[in-house]
Design goal:
Number of strands: 13
Largest sheet: 6 strands, mixed
Radius of gyration: 27 Å
Structural class: alpha/beta
Strand content: 5-15%
Number of helices: 22
Strand order of the largest sheet: 8-7-6-9-10-11
Shape: globular
Length: 592
């Protein structure tokens, strides 16, 4: 058995640094070797190697994409490679390093026959994937990293495109797609699949890839459905492709996915508008009423423009998720009509579904001669779908939904303390249940929608409850160090920052590793936080920002009690984690 030390380093990519480290660690330990790895990423150095570890090692592996200080490894047999090679060709990297140091190559296969099967089948398979979650922040990249790591570890050639909040990264080229044996769409929002025509496609959620990427890849090879191929030549064949794609989309995508797509596009508008509104309160709660002042300008941008766009963007991209581009125009216009008619957030949701399904039906059922098909996307579909949706909103849907919206707002604003606490309890538990997943987003979207009706208490409860899971875990790694590994304690620093920033996803690594103990702990802490926030009648006028928005005067009502709610929820979460988790050296089998 060899004693190995290593360094993985990529100053631009923390995931590459971590993935290379984990891949090397797993393969080395599976082969019976001892290995310690230092990670040098954009967030700094983690698990640094001591000089004693280096002096007692037999060899060193440096998977680096940048220059590092190598003088401390002088005298050791050292192999230098890249993080990408360490991820994709981990066994080869380890084998080469062992040979250089005079050790026999690892035998990670049960037999030569298994190795031959792997070489002939698995290593030749090429996978392309797309990941996308409603916010395009944590889950999008965590799913991508999990797929890359597991795919590479299992011998597949895999490339993943992330469709995040700042656009697509690592975009798939036509050559990537043409060479692929399989396409995995790991998304909770609409993904355009037209470029994958003729390829086997497997669709799943981002959560499934984060929790068990290996199972997703296995299921993908077993259950993928081949998309209709794009035949060259006739216009009619292209129409059949569009129809097949629409039918497949209707089969595999439910209404909730369409709603999440709308929410994902709406969130940046809401956050920008809400924070600008909150900044206007710095000058006084009613300072914006004085024309020509900076407060008035900020309110005009945030409340007059951004918040007015919130519902149209929601409806427009819900319709886009259902019917692709033909749904966008009637969805945007239907959403704006919902705002003008007083139907609000609820009216926007109905307008989005109506616009999407109307546009989809028209696209599938209107048949024109090939010479006139060019009129469909620029004249016929937008005109007919917008007219139908607009007339239904004005004469049928608008007034009843306005009444429902006003009644719901009045009920929430006049809610008794007991019911308010119960609502806060439920919203808080939802925020921690899947930590940024669909349930979390449902609670968040519900609270954001109420901001347009001047109902601020649910938003306060939701943000406070979303902060406590990572904060509670970060605190637990400090006060109960024996319950966590070195890596978990190091990650606690990042969890603290994420918690303060209202990014609940900071709790996911801990929940994924020990769900039966972590998830109940954070749900109870968040539920108590949400209930206390409602009990103290705290209100929040900004839809995001975490602890940083608390410094804006007048953005939070009853600020002292609001902070107390977050502190109490964090302490409860920490106490439950300490009570439920056992010391790591005593935990025989981790909970699954």
């Amino acid at each position: 058995m060899a004693k190995i030390v290593g360094v993985t380093a990529n100053r631009d990519s923390e995931p590459h640094t971590r993935m290379a480290s984990e891949a090397l660690r797993k393969v080395a330990e599976d082969a019976g070797h001892s290995i310690s790895i230092e990670c040098q990423g954009p967030n700094g150095v983690t698990t640094p190697l001591s000089q004693d570890q280096i002096d007692s090692a037999d060899l060193a592996i440096l998977a680096i994409d940048q220059s590092i200080d190598q003088t401390r490894f002088e005298g050791l047999k050292t192999t230098i490679t890249t993080t990408s090679a360490a991820i994709r060709k981990t066994e080869d990297t380890l084998s080469d390093a062992l040979k250089i140091a005079g050790f026999p190559a690892p035998n990670t296969r049960d037999s030569k026959q298994e190795e031959a099967v792997s070489t002939s089948e698995s290593s030749k398979k090429r996978i392309v994937a797309v990941t996308s979650c409603p916010t395009g922040i944590a889950h999008t990249f965590m799913a991508a990293d999990a797929l890359k790591k597991k795919g590479a570890a299992e011998g597949y050639d895999i490339k993943v495109e992330t469709q995040g909040s700042v656009g697509a990264k690592d975009q798939l080229t036509a050559e990537d797609i043409a060479a692929a044996d399989l396409v995995i769409i790991s998304a909770d929002t609409h993904v355009d699949e037209s470029r994958f025509a003729g390829k086997p496609i497997y669709r799943t959620s981002v959560g499934a890839s984060v929790k068990d990427a290996s199972a997703v890849i296995k299921a993908a090879f077993a259950e993928a459905e081949t998309a209709a191929p794009a035949a060259a030549g006739s216009e009619g064949s292209m129409q059949s492709v569009a129809e097949a794609k629409a039918a497949l989309q209707a089969k595999r995508s439910g209404p909730y996915k369409h709603l999440l797509t709308g929410v994902s596009y709406m969130l940046p508008v809401v956050v920008a508008g809400g924070l600008l509104i909150a900044l206007s309160f710095v000058f006084g709660i009613e300072a914006f009423k004085e024309e020509g002042t900076l407060a008035a300008a900020l309110m005009a941008i945030g409340g007059g423009a951004a918040f007015k766009l919130m519902v149209p963007v929601l409806a427009g991209f819900m319709a886009y998720s259902i019917a692709d581009r033909p749904g966008l125009t009637p969805g945007l216009i239907g959403g704006l009509l919902a705002v003008n008619l007083g139907a609000g957030f609820l009216g926007g949701i109905l307008a989005g579904f109506l616009a999407g399904y109307v546009a989809l039906w028209l696209k599938d059922n209107i048949k024109l001669p090939s010479s006139l098909e060019g009129l469909m996307p620029i004249l016929i579909l937008p005109l007919l779908s917008t007219a139908i949706v607009g007339l239904l909103m004005v004469y049928v849907i608008g007034e009843p939904v306005r009444y429902i919206n006003e009644s719901l707002t009045a009920m929430l604003q006049s809610m008794g303390q007991t019911n308010a606490v119960l609502l806060g309890l439920v919203l808080g538990a939802m925020m921690a249940f899947d930590m940024g997943g669909p349930v979390n987003k449902a609670a968040y979207a519900f609270s954001v929608g109420l901001l347009t009706s001047d109902t601020f208490a649910p938003m306060a409860a939701v943000m406070a409850a979303g902060m406590t899971p990572p904060l509670g875990l970060a605190l637990a790694t400090v006060v109960a160090k024996n319950r966590f590994t070195d890596d978990e304690r190091e990650a606690g620093k990042a969890a603290a920052v994420l918690g303060l920033s209202f990014i609940t996803e900071g709790a996911i690594p801990y929940a994924a590793k020990d769900p039966l103990r972590v998830i109940p702990s954070i749900m109870i802490g968040s539920a108590v936080t949400g209930a206390l926030s409602m009990f103290f009648a705290a209100g929040l006028r900004a839809p995001h920002g975490g602890a940083f928005v608390l410094a804006i005067p007048n953005a939070v009502s009853n600020l002292p009690m609001y902070i107390l709610s977050i502190v109490i929820g964090t302490l409860i979460t920490t106490a439950l984690l300490i009570a439920l988790k056992r010391p790591v050296n005593e935990a025989a089998v981790p909970a699954e």
